[in-house]
Protein: SMP domain-containing protein
Organism: Acer negundo
Amino acid sequence: MSQGKPRRPQAAEQEVPVKYGDIFNVSDELADKPVKPEDASMMQTAESTIFGKTKKGGPASAMQSAANQNERAGLVGHHDVTDIAGEQGVSVTEIDVPGSRIITEAVGGQVVGQYVEPTPVAPTVAAVGAVQQGSITIGEALEATSQTASDKPVDQSDAAAIQAAEVRATGSNIIIPGGLAASAQSAAAHNESVYRYEDKIKLGAVLTGATRKLAADKAATRQDAEGVVSAELRNNPNVAMHPGGVAASVVAAARLNENIR
């Protein structure tokens, strides 16, 4: 679960502004937007709220460096703000899981950074059943996705990954009517027929309360993660995982579970 390797910023002397797509793995309109000083300031404030300071080498730092370069080149003003950041905001959110917390940073709903930080956890006793106390289940990983990629419109790669996750969690290849996989497939089909972003069904709507919607659940394992990743990649034209998406969340859960053992 990482923000991906940033591309090299354009040199200021070329009088081409450093854009979000130059430093983060983002897409659509945001990728073509120049990074502006007020964007960086908002992210610094958000990071300070969570971390108590600006994270060294984090998104706020990268944004500040890009904004400074753009300002020195005379391509943006000191108080300029990108319309996407200004209207949709920037955010730093955290999800607590046993022994760790998942921190996600986003601009306009697109993930620009994601970290897993260890936290102290009290010793627990193994529970009776398939899930051991302290382990993160597949359902919990899907619920985490409902926050880390809540505004992402559901597409076929998401639907395939959710179906693979449901199969792994329940141990059944049957798609349950009204279940997560069925809802995701319906959402993906709907989104292919509409054009406006606001009319599309988002991952947050499908995956909120995922654990309650699963007929059964289990701790996420490396094998589960591999199956979900494979499904997402096979159905993505770019053969890439979405940052903070379904596959990335299950991978993170599996890694955390391996560290608990």
Observations:
- The mean pLDDT is 83.
- The longest helix spans residues 37-51.
